[in-house]
Amino acid sequence: MSGNAADGRRRWFGVFFLIIAAGMLIWGQTILKPHLQGAGFVIYWLMCMGFTALAMLTALLDLWAVRRRTRDQQRELLRRVFDERESTQENKGDEPDDH
């Protein structure tokens, strides 16, 4: 599969958002748990959910990009096969019959 800079950047952003969300989850359930109260609790977990949503959105964007590229490659392959077949049939029409 051929990748390009946009694919790599999109995947790194997805991994980054996922690592941040996982880190926030671990910290929120261990080290910060006694300190998160009231509005701080809500804001912290909304931020964690936001990073999780960003990771999911990035994954969906990557899925759509891969599907679009695959569809375009399939169309190009079919076009080449039909063009090749067409040119082969034209060449056969130029040859004299042996009968």
The share of residues in helices is over 70%
Apparent shape:
rod-shaped
Q: How many strands, which pairing sense, and closed or not: the largest β-sheet?
A: none
H-E string: HH
Question: If you average the pLDDT, what whole number results?
Answer: 90
Rg to the nearest angstrom? 27 Å
In terms of per-residue confidence, which ranges show pLDDT below 50 for 5 or more consecutive residues?
A: none
The total tally of domains equals 1
The overall strand count is 0
Helix/strand structural class:
mainly alpha
Kindly estimate the percentage of residues that lie in beta strands according to DSSP.
under 5%
Measure the end-to-end span.
Answer: 48 Å
- Continuous helix count: 2
In short:
Helices cover 82% and strands 0% of the residues. It has 99 residues and is an all-alpha fold. It starts with a helix and ends in a 5-residue tail after the last helix.
Could you explain the architecture of this structure?
- This protein is mainly alpha-helical.
- The protein has one domain.
- The protein has helices spanning 5-29, 39-94.
- Helix 1 runs antiparallel to helix 2 (39-94).
- The longest helix is centred in the C-terminal third of the chain and has 56 residues, at 39-94.
- The radius of gyration is 27 Å and the shape is rod-shaped.
- The model has no long low-confidence stretch (mean pLDDT 90).
Structural features:
99 residues, 2 helices
List the helices and strands and how they pair.
Elements: H1 5-29, H2 39-94
Helix pairs in contact: 1-2
